[in-house]
Amino acid sequence: MKIATWNVNSVRTRLDHVMDWLKDNPVDVLCLQETKVVDEQFPRSLFEELGYHLYISGQKSYNGVAIASLQPLTDVSTGFTGVLPDVEPEWDAQKRVITGVFSDIRILNLYVPNGSSIDSDKYEYKLGWLQILERYLQQILPVTPNICMCGDFNIALEDRDIHDKVSIKNHIMSSDSERNALGEILKLGFADAFRKFNPEGGQYSWWDYRAASFRRNLGWRIDHHYVTVDLYERAKSCVIDVTPRKKEKPSDHTPVVLEV
Description:
Blueprint: E1 2-7, H1 15-24, E2 29-33, H2 44-49, E3 53-57, E4 65-69, E5 74-78, E6 97-102, E7 105-111, H3 121-140, E8 147-152, H4 176-186, E9 190-192, H5 193-197, E10 206-207, E11 219-220, E12 223-228, H6 229-234, E13 237-240, E14 256-259
Helix pairs in contact: 3-4
């Protein structure tokens, strides 16, 4: 089984890229982030023509997550409040969480807030969002112990996840508070599937559009598959496919594919 994650930075803008990639890489599950489209306008038919079932949670112009699966998912839900009814609805106003079960694996597709800058309200929102995610996972882990939590985390957990020529001083996505918050989540019983097979640095999933960052490989690894213990043992490979990033007008992210 192959599970891919890809922040497409607008599914309609990048639709040809996504369709071409799926035809060449017919993964069992594709988790998309930053779809940037309301549910009614999601380009559903092209995915369905390739045999995919779609589960979407979108909004106009911003955010948005979707799961395309070759078999129907069960127990599909969106947001935090279905699991944590005491959470303020504002935490689900931005469409960032969607989940469903494929066979014995719960797929949890996340678009973690970016945070904007360390001195901003959006940064505090990001840290608060991560705390709620931790509570959410504490609730679902006892019910569905096999979880693949994937998506755009907007956090490079370690310095080896960032090119050494990229300045990270006072930079979002690499601050101590963000890394510590993600670290607390991983302590619940998650491991980094990519690092099982790729202990070295130098492989990235996101490159800034500016300063010829992709050509110079000045990247960050911020798109992850974090999996529970049994799935970590079952994992056969985890690779970053840079091919779509080479296309004209690409997303600034590229797909990451886990095989279990």
